Amino acid sequence: MKKFFMATSLVATMLTLAACGSSNSEEASSTAAAGDEKVTLTFSWWGGELRHNSTQEAVELYEELNPNVDIQVEYSSWDDYWKKLATKSASGDLPDVMQMDLQYISQYGLKNQLSDLSEFAVKGGAIDTTYTDESLVEGSKIGDELFGFPISKNALSMLTNTSALADTGVTIDYENWDFEDWKQVVSDVHEKTGKYGMVDVGDIAILFSYYLRTEGESLYTYDDEGNPSLNYTDENFTAFFETMQGLVAEGAMPTPEVVKNVKSFDENPFALGESALMETWTNQYNLYNDATEDDLSLDLVYGANNENNPLSYRQAMFYSIAETSEYKEEAADFIDWIVNSTEAADILGTERGISTNSQVVEHLSANMTEIEKETADYLTDIADVVGDPEAVPPLGYTEINTLLNDMYSEVAYGEKDVKSFCDEFRVKAEEVLADNY
Going from the N-terminus, what domains does the chain have, and what CATH number goes with each? Predict the structure, then answer.
């Protein structure tokens, strides 16, 4: 069994990369700059004001380096972004380059909306993968096609509000705890303090999928022909959701309604010191530190060291190119520059997450905040225990995810028993997959 030790230093692990030099923006943008033809690219993304401002600054620098390229940008909030993208998709007017999310990439890619980047994304290619984790690139493919290039990564973690945990007498052996230990910790914290032991992230599929990986299963898998199917036993489905139902019933975890009504990070019970734990993605660590004055720590989720290697790197987001783009090579050149160049990295920082490019991470490390360094170190330190990335969600996943969360709410409120939930979800989820494949 592989073991995990939080002893690795980000800088130390990256020293070997320093000798390789850094990306040169002028070289990286040679494709777009090679001709005199005026090229206009459209580029869209979602995010907040910080992302909007820094991305526009990076775009302006790229235009300076490539005078023949004009980039028209459009940015939105998360909800508005997908509404606009759906409208553009229907009219055949998707942006040349667009930010893409894991839960939507199948929907757009398998319906011939996105270009296959496989020929671009290779070592020394138009989108250079020399310093990119190969498993993340391969894990982003649907079959043999790569519909988005992974630009940043994260992983599941257990955020601990050490201020809330203090004086409870509850201790956690993060190296060795399992699901039963986690259940006991959550229950004990509530019993001793009256507070929540843990707050979930508002999407029960995240917690359920990780639990299944600790048991050597997964929510879905694909056969050799690319057809998806559910990949878990009813026994494990029942064990997980009976546990969740019990913790909500005793008050050790909040009801789904409480979580759904949280409108900002500083309103979350975890940030308010009303919960000791939160199982979530590593990129949330910085946001919750900004949202609270409590002391927080970034720790291993339960079962991380078991023989099934349940932890995995997750593609935080992608850049995709529209299949209808007239300038695919120029779009690929722009993606290469904004992902791989140190010039772009100096402007964008880690706002989109920790880069998938190890050379960029090493370059940025000197100016990272302590929280950013902790996050980057965590992602480096788990390298020996991570398993294969989860498969890209299948077509219909959004509907399946909604079914799971809606039915879980009924179970949490005692309106449905877990056995009925297990049976009904399997039938409906299989119907969704059958309708899409």
Answer: 20-153+314-376 (3.40.190.10), 156-311+396-436 (3.40.190.10)
